[in-house]
Target: Acyl-CoA dehydrogenase
Amino acid sequence: MDGQMTGELHTPEENEIIGTVARFVKERVRPYVQQLEREGKYPQHLVGEMMELGLFGLAVPESYGGLGARIPVLAIILEVLGSGWATLAAYVNSHSTVAYAIATHGTEQQKSRYLPRLATGEHRGALCLSEPGCGSDLQAIKGLAKDAGDHYDLVASKTYVTNGAKATLLLTLVKHPAVAGETKPKISLLIVEKAYPKVSVTSTFEKTAFHLVDTVQIEMDGVAVPKAQLLGPAEGMGFPQLMDSLEIGRVAIAASAVGVAANALSEAKRYASERVAFGVTIDHHQAIQMKLADMATKLVGARLMTMEAASAKERGGRCDMITAMAKTYASDCALEIAHQAVVIHGGAGYIRDYVVERLHREALLYTIGEGTNDINRIVISRRMKGEEEMQYLGLLP
Model:
């Protein structure tokens, strides 16, 4: 992976970081993934090396000890990680969204307190958004933060929290009690330290894939959260803060999905060049050639759209449409490419000894997480009603 492949121009320092991560994946990750998956042990040694490389500080500004990576560079690094082992990308994704939210919307006190330790990985961030029965309808959350003088009395039940067991900081979406005259209650984000009393992990969910990435339910039963932990200067800003931050999350998910797709295509291409059927390797058969060509085309299209979304986010302004497009298209392509990689492997593709069996299971998650693809399609269709989006798409009025 380099700047020419992505169409991006990078500084020598950025190329060095990308190259270092690529070597880490090639030498320390790819040869051992299948064994690590079979053992089922949390890869602390690799997480430690990721900390040393500064990967938990991708979204933390340099002034607070992070890499301060530009968003296109962040996307490339997550693609590289995803192409080696999507589990490692998952450790960084939501953590980076939390770091971005604090760096962009937090108070100076919050930045100084949390960003340096997020950069080193001493603090690990997780998003506490979804609640049982709410799913993607975040406006329907019931988690409540009542004013209790110098603190909030927080009662919330958050589910499907990625990295929630390992996290130390929980960026939590809450409502405030409705006030007379308000049409609807305010929604805010709180920085909840998991060490606070009455915060507990109550369930761990077993998933189809990503078994070494914990997904948990977290209960906050009357947690006293200091008011200084309110993200930003005032209550009621949580939804715009979250939507801005989730655009980073969509870029990260899209890039990780591209990495999985690249891995699947690499495995399919290699297998097709080795497997002999009817006297020749199967990459001589036109049916296989056409599959590989379609897979390669979708891979490049997904990568280009992801980089366009990353560049649009870096330029500033509203970019929920293009980030939703990138997340949806990249994850759909990853699932299709992984599926075709299994088909090319034939019966072997359904055996756990082969990498593509795992990649097929991993790719499915990307169509569900960070907003299901159907939810993202709704975002896209609604934004298409705007004049700016019409111009972006080159559509006539």
